[in-house]
Amino acid sequence: MNKSEFLSELEKRIRVLDKSEIKDILAEYSQHIDMEMSNGQTEDEAIKSFGSIDELTSEILVAYHVNPEYEYDAEISEIIDSDNIENKSKGKKAFSEAKEGIKEWQKKLHDKRLAKKAIKAEQKALKKEKSKDEFGEFIEKGKNNGKAVGRSVGNGVKTLTSKIWTLCKWIFVILCIIPDAALAVISIFGIGILVVLMFQGYPVIGVLIALIGMAIASVAFGGLLISIVVKKKVVTVESVEYDDIPNDTDDFTGEE
Description:
Blueprint: H1 3-13, H2 19-38, H3 43-48, H4 53-63, H5 82-199, H6 205-229
Helix pairs in contact: 1-2, 4-5, 5-6
């Protein structure tokens, strides 16, 4: 049922009332339907909010002190009498009160809808803000994790590089120190033989000195090779500025 059909049917059912009263009633319900439609309801939903048309008609007729069982398409001239005129006056007053009640109900309904919209908007804003905070935390956590992974990878690469470099140095030292040690042993062995020959009167002093120099050079070279792979930790002590140390003598001027 659309608005036009509803108003037409309602008009037929309350024909027992005065034309001015019928006009006021129809205008009131038409205005109410328009207002509900402006609030987002459909025309059919706005009409259904009144309930069944039979109940609505009965309520209006009772408000005007008219028997609801009255056959609405009967002739008005057969119903209206002197008593009904007085009852209609009372009914008009009751209808005015009912109209005020409808307006109050409409106002409450409108306020309720506004409150619901405000709550939904606030919930949406809170949800959006929460999502924004969670996204920011996720990004920050990702950055921190990325930095931690980067530091871990960097430390791992640094450690691996250091170990490889140390291994290379040891390999170099071993390859060099083996022949150097052999040369040192041979030199020492030769020195022993030449000392014996020298005491027997052989002129081997020059060769002996040469072997001694060779042995010393071999030992020195071996020490150099070992120092390449053996590191000594150097402890540094930060210097202290004497100007920063308070001097108790600054408080004395030399005069008592």
